[in-house]
Amino acid sequence: MPDTQFSCAKCGANSCTSADKAFPKGCMSIKAEEDGALEAALAEYNTHPEIMAVARAAAAVEAEFYCKAPRAEEIVHFAKKMDYKKIGIATCGGLIEEARIFGKILEASGLIPCGVACKTGRIDKTNIGIPEEGKVKPGGFEAMCNPVLQAKLLNEEGTDLNVIIGLCVGHDCLFSMYSKAPVTTLIAKDRVLAHNPAGALYTATNYYKHLLDLE
Fold this sequence. Notes:
Blueprint: H1 28-34, H2 37-47, H3 49-65, H4 71-81, E1 86-91, H5 96-108, E2 112-117, H6 147-157, E3 161-165, H7 171-178, E4 183-187, H8 198-202
Parallel strand pairs: 1-2, 1-3, 3-4
Helix pairs in contact: 2-3, 3-4, 6-7
């Protein structure tokens, strides 16, 4: 399939991080300026106080804690800069211990954790059309992950910020779609790589080189 447009994921110039570098031909920065997307994006910050507040708090956390604090701590600092109080935890049932520890960290920081596990509701997968052979272990009850319910329950709790801990690929999408509060991720699930999905990218030219030829 031929390239249809410039992609930052294929660019090595990194011109957007420095004021004295020229943008390469077809650069997204040039496109954004030409089609008005850059101006429109800036307008979002300048016309919506809540968007500006998040942007400024995020920049402040970056400036103060970059390469100094782990992500769990950065989330705490961000929440405090935003004056958030109640923090939702949308967790995978398999990472409930990690969620419990993070909840303790929140409490120690004066915040209020509210966790909801993915299997809450205990609904069998057949209720959403998954056949028995489509289960991890066919032939018996197997609870579906229910990110829509997780989001709705946290919405009812009135959480100020929701934190994803290990939701499956796709389930994290659904949770973010239904969450009324802003969403950030503490742990991206990757059971093969001890929840370090970047490891596959670092080894894509050797151990996981099959990833470059999935077709």
